[in-house]
Amino acid sequence: MASRTEAKKYHYADIVLEHLPVGVAVYDAQEFRLLEANTLFLTNLEPFLDPCWQQERAIGHTLAELEICNFMDIFRSVAESAEAYRGEALPLATLQGQLTYWDWTLDLIEDGENRHLLQTMTNVTAQVQERRQALQGGEMCLHALLDQLPEGIIIAKSEDDLINYVNPAAAYLLKTSLPCLLGSSVHKFTPGDGSKNDGPGGPWNRYLIEALRGETIKSQEAVITLHDGSNITVLLSGVPLFMTLNGQKSMTGAVIAFQDITTQKSMEQHKNDFLAIANHELRTPITIIQGFAELLKMTQAEEDALSDFTHTALTYIIDQSEHLARLIEAMLDISKIDQCQFELKREPHDLLALLTGIIKSQGVVAKNHRFQLQLEGIQERDKVICMFDRQSMIQAFSNLMNNAVKYSPGAGEIETGLRVVEDMQGQQKEVLIWVKDHGIGIAPAEIPHIFDRFYRGSTLDGYISGFGIGLYLVKEIITRHSGCVWVESVQNAGSTFYVSLPLLSIEQESSV
What we know:
It contains 13 helices and 18 strands. By secondary structure, the protein is α+β, with helices and mostly antiparallel strands. A five-stranded antiparallel beta sheet has the order 2-1-5-4-3, sandwiched between helices.
């Protein structure tokens, strides 16, 4: 058997290099002179070289002499840093202008004082074209799907800010044609400088421009001005589109989706107008009914002229009139919240005094329940100073206590508590208030929805009335005071509603 040394005479390494499915070449690391290459590499290189350098005539010449300067910076970087380079699907144009794609690598090889660069090249043009065809097929399927959506969809490319897709719904909503939109610059439709103050509602394309700048728009109500000067209200979302290539994430475009909610907003405005008018028109007769009922009760107290039945009837008239007035006021508050007109006049007030007054009022109305004030770490004469709107806070805590009474139909005790909460450094930061009843409680599945607008528990008996707006208003009021509200409940054992509010100070009554 021939020895391994003798076998080397047959230059098996040359045979291996010649039959590799990858083009391989060696350069010196100083002048980047092509020293050796296998046949596949030279064949791959020919479309990019002048005919005078084709076949093996390129060997022995530098990249500069071969006029291959596109990747000179990469060669210098690898030679100086010794860090290998890996490129995937790099585009290269042949001398005839045909675009091709290549995977190639460049490594520094050091052998003593000798330093060389080893390059490999693999033609992946076919694979890239197949992927692109697959993507185009997928894009066509996606566009076919988007064409059927009732929402308007517009997509633009980031490289040239041109619109490359519009579905029929978008053209219809914008009162224009597909040819007018497709292929147009996103800036074409912006009056003036494209600022948000252009026109009554602003142009629709400013949202697409924002998305092309990398901004995300989520479910935003917007009024947009069309080319004919009319306005529509839309619910709009927009996001930038990204793709990852060679491990790097780059933005390729942006998309906006929108739907016309003009009719819904108009109906909502009509509803709000109706509630405002109803509140104004109903308040006067209710006030008159309450006034005359109070006068009749005063007459009984002075002359003892009314029967027990009449006294009871007058009490019910007054109670139900007040209840109706509160419902009307609550509906008006919801209307104000919807129109962003729910204003709060926040000033320093004594929260303890406010709670004490509400408990006394509730005790007069709900005589079958016992109201108790529980203080922890606070004296009855202390002043718990917080910043709040007095009327709205009275409404919030009255709603909580009314709620406790309503859902404790068998009477019982209603506990209202107050405690100062300290932070980790022992500083008094906020105040915790709770309203506790021993009534029917809340089913676990109902708790996550209990503060939703118009929500009514599915397990409630029909005799418990309500619109499902009391707790919703409580949450809105407390949240707008930078506070939190939550509930803990056990079904058939009662509920405890908690409220936390920022605390300004505790003013203690000085001893005499």
